C-alpha cells in the first residue's frame, strides 16, 4: 500500500529529518507513529498525504508515485481542519462537494467512485457520529469533541482506503478521546482500512496500532518498529502484555534519542 | 444595534440641531424642518442629478479598489516571499495622505471623472489591500492542507477557502473607508467640475449663499455615506453569518 524508497527530506532552512529512509506498509495494516516533537512525525504524514515531497527518493501509494494528494487518502488533523465559516453540515459536505465540483477526474476525485447524493450521504455520517443536534452550528460554537467528529465524518464520507491521522485525539478530554478511539478503531477494522496514526502518546500508540513506528533522533534513516499483535484482543488495555509493549516502546523511544 | 436606539439617536440629533438653530438665529444655520423641506424639493430635481454623479464616482472607485486590491492582498497574505518584498513599499505608502496627490492626478489624467475616481481609488486600494493581506495571512496552513487532502485544487481552494476567508476583510475595509471616500469625493468635486454633491454644496454655500440648499446638499452627501455604510454592513451580515454567532 505504502512504499517509501530511500526518501530524504528537509525543510528549507532546517536539518534533515529523513535520510535514505525506506519503509513499507501492507494494505489493511494499522500503524501508529510515535516520537518526540520535531522528530518528523507530522512531516512523514504530509509526505504520505502528498502535501510535501521528498528532496530525493520516492513515495508510492498503491503502486503510484505521489505527485499530489491522492483522492482515496483521508487526512484528519488535530485542529484547524474545519472551515470556520461553514456549519457542521457544510463542513461534512465539503469533500463531497469538492468531488462534484471536479467530477470523477482521477486527480481530485476517484475515477471509479459513483456520484452520490451529497446531502443524503452527509446525513448518514452526521447521524453515525452523533452530530444531528449541531448540524447548523459553526465550529466555534461546538465542543472540541464535536469538532473532531465533524472532521472525521467529513473524511469518512469520502470512503477512503487509507486513513492518515495527526494527533486526532490530542486536544480532547479523556472520556471523549476513548469514545472516538473506539469508534475509529471499529470502523477501520470493519472496512479493513489502512491506517497511519501519528501520536505522542505511548498508550494510544499501543492501543491503536498493530505496529508502532518510532521516530527518534534526526535524521531518521532506519525504521524502528515494534510489533503489537495483541491490539485487536478485547480488553487489551488491562493486560500485562499491553503494559509490556508500552514499556518496550518507551525504552526504544528513549534509546533512539 | 437596535432600530429603536438608532431612531432615538436621530431624534436627539434633530432636537440638538433645532435648538442650535433657535439659539444662533442666523441664515447660516436654518432649522432642520426648512432643510428637509428643501431637500425633498430639490432631490427629484437638480440635487438628485448631482447625487447620482457622486454616487457613480464612489461606487466605481469602490469596485475598482476591491477588484485590484483584494487579489493583491490575497497573494501577499499567502506568500511570505512576495510579502517580504512589498511590505516595505506598502509600509511607506500607506500613511501618506493621498489627498495631496489631487493636483498631480488631475494633471496626469485630466479634468474628468477618471481622475476623480482614481483619486478615491488610491485611498481605498491601500485600506482593502492591508486588511485582506492580514486576513489571508491568518489562514492556518493546516486548514489549507486538510482541504487539499479532500481533493481541492487551485480553483476549489479559491472558491471554498480564500474567497470566504477574505470576504469579511473586504467588507470591513469597504465599511471603514467609506467615510474617507466621501470626504475625498467632496474635495475632488471642488476641482473643475459642474456635477456632483461637492460642487453643489460649494456652489450654494460659497457662491450663491443659499444656505438651505447647501444643507440639502450636505444631507444628500450624508445619506450617500450612510447608505453605503449600511449596505456594506448588511452584506457583511448576510454573506458572513458565522461572524455574528455567539
General description of the model:
The complex is a heterodimer of chains A (257) and B (246). With 257 residues, chain A is α/β, with parallel strands linked by helices. Chain A has helices at 41-49, 88-102, 118-128, 144-156, 174-191, 202-208, 240-255, and strands at 2-10, 16-25, 30-34, 56-61, 64-65, 73-76, 162-166, 194-199, 211-214, 224-227. The longest helix of chain A is centred in the C-terminal third of the chain and has 18 residues, at 174-191. Chain A starts with a strand and ends with a helix. The mean pLDDT of chain A is 88. By secondary structure, chain B is mostly helical. Chain B has helices at 3-24, 32-42, 46-78, 80-93, 102-109, 113-137, 141-149, 154-188, 197-207, 211-239. The two termini of chain B are 15 Å apart. Chain B is globular, with a radius of gyration of 22 Å. The model of chain B has no long low-confidence stretch (mean pLDDT 90). The A-B interface holds A 46, 49, 51, 69, 71, 73-86, 94-95, 97-99, 101-102, 107-109, 137-138, 140-141, 151, 154-155, 158, 164 and B 140, 142-143, 145-153, 155-156, 159-161, 164-165, 240, 242, 245-246.
Number of strands of chain B: 0
Termini gap of chain A: 29 Å
Distance from first to last alpha carbon of chain B: 15 Å
User: SSE string of chain A, helix = H, strand = E?
Assistant: EEEHEEEHHHEHEHEEH
What is the share of helical residues of chain B? Answer: over 70%
Structural class of the helices, strands and pairings of chain B?
Answer: mainly alpha
CATH fold node name of the domain at 69-160 in chain A: Rossmann fold
Mean pLDDT over the residues of chain B: 90
Task: Please write the string of helix (H) and strand (E) elements of chain B.
Answer: HHHHHHHHHH
Kindly give the count of domains of chain B.
Answer: 2
Main sheet: strand order of chain A: 6-7-8-3-9-10
Largest sheet of chain A, described in full? 6 strands, mixed
Instruction: Give the helix proportion of chain A (percent range).
Output: 25-40%
CATH architecture of the largest domain in chain B: Orthogonal Bundle
Q: Which structural class is indicated by helix and strand composition of chain A?
A: alpha/beta
* Radius of gyration of chain B from CA coordinates: 22 Å
Low-confidence stretches of chain A: none
Radius of gyration based on Cα positions of chain A: 18 Å
Amino acid at each position: 500500500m505504502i512504499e517509501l524508497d530511500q526518501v530524504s527530506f528537509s525543510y528549507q532552512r532546517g536539518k534533515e529529518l529523513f535520510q535514505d529512509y525506506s519503509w513499507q506498509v501492507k494494505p489493511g495494516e494499522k500503524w501508529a507513529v510515535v516520537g518526540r516533537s520535531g522528530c518528523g512525525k507530522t512531516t512523514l504524514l504530509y509526505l504520505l498525504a502528498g502535501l510535501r515531497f521528498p528532496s530525493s527518493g520516492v513515495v508510492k501509494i498503491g503502486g503510484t508515485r505521489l505527485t499530489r494528494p491522492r483522492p482515496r487518502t483521508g487526512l484528519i488533523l488535530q485542529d484547524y481542519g474545519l472551515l470556520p465559516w461553514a456549519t457542521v453540515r457544510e463542513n461534512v459536505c465539503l469533500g463531497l462537494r469538492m468531488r462534484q465540483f471536479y467530477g470523477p477526474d482521477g486527480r481530485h476525485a476517484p475515477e471509479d467512485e459513483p456520484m452520490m447524493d451529497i446531502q443524503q450521504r452527509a446525513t448518514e455520517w452526521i447521524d453515525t457520529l452523533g452530530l444531528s443536534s449541531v448540524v447548523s452550528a459553526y465550529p466555534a460554537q461546538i465542543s472540541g469533541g464535536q469538532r473532531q467528529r465533524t472532521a472525521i465524518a467529513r473524511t469518512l464520507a469520502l470512503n477512503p482506503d487509507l486513513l492518515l491521522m495527526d494527533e486526532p485525539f490530542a486536544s480532547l478530554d479523556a472520556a471523549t478521546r476513548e469514545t472516538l478511539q473506539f469508534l475509529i478503531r471499529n470502523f477501520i477494522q470493519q472496512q479493513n482500512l489502512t491506517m497511519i496514526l501519528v501520536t505522542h502518546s505511548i498508550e494510544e500508540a499501543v492501543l491503536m496500532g498493530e505496529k508502532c513506528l518510532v521516530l527518534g533522533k534526526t535524521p531518521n534513516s532506519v525504521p524502528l518498529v515494534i510489533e503489537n499483535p495483541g491490539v485487536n484482543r478485547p480488553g487489551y488495555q488491562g493486560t500485562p502484555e499491553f503494559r509490556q509493549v508500552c514499556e518496550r516502546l518507551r525504552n526504544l523511544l528513549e534509546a533512539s534519542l | 444595534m437596535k432600530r429603536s436606539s438608532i431612531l432615538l439617536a436621530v431624534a436627539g440629533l434633530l432636537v440638538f440641531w433645532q435648538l442650535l438653530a433657535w439659539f444662533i438665529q442666523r441664515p447660516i444655520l436654518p432649522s432642520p424642518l426648512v432643510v428637509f423641506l428643501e431637500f425633498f424639493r430639490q432631490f427629484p430635481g437638480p440635487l438628485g442629478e448631482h447625487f447620482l454623479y457622486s454616487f457613480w464616482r464612489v461606487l466605481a472607485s469602490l469596485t475598482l479598489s476591491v477588484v485590484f486590491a483584494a487579489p493583491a492582498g490575497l497573494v501577499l497574505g499567502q506568500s511570505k516571499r512576495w510579502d517580504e518584498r512589498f511590505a516595505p513599499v506598502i509600509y511607506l505608502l500607506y500613511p501618506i495622505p493621498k489627498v495631496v496627490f489631487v493636483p498631480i492626478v488631475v494633471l496626469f489624467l485630466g479634468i474628468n471623472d477618471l481622475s476623480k475616481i482614481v483619486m478615491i481609488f488610491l485611498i481605498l486600494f491601500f485600506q482593502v489591500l492591508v486588511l485582506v493581506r492580514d486576513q489571508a495571512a491568518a489562514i492556518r496552513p493546516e486548514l489549507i492542507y486538510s482541504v487539499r487532502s479532500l481533493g481541492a485544487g487551485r480553483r476549489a481552494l479559491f472558491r471554498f477557502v480564500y474567497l470566504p476567508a477574505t470576504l469579511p476583510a473586504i467588507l470591513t475595509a469597504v465599511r471603514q473607508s467609506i467615510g474617507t471616500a466621501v470626504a475625498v469625493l467632496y474635495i475632488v468635486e471642488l476641482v473643475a467640475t459642474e456635477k456632483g454633491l461637492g460642487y453643489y454644496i460649494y456652489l450654494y454655500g460659497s457662491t450663491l449663499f443659499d444656505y438651505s440648499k447647501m444643507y440639502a446638499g450636505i444631507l444628500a452627501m450624508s445619506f450617500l455615506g450612510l447608505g453605503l455604510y449600511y449596505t456594506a454592513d448588511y452584506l457583511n451580515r448576510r454573506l458572513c453569518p458565522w461572524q455574528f454567532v455567539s
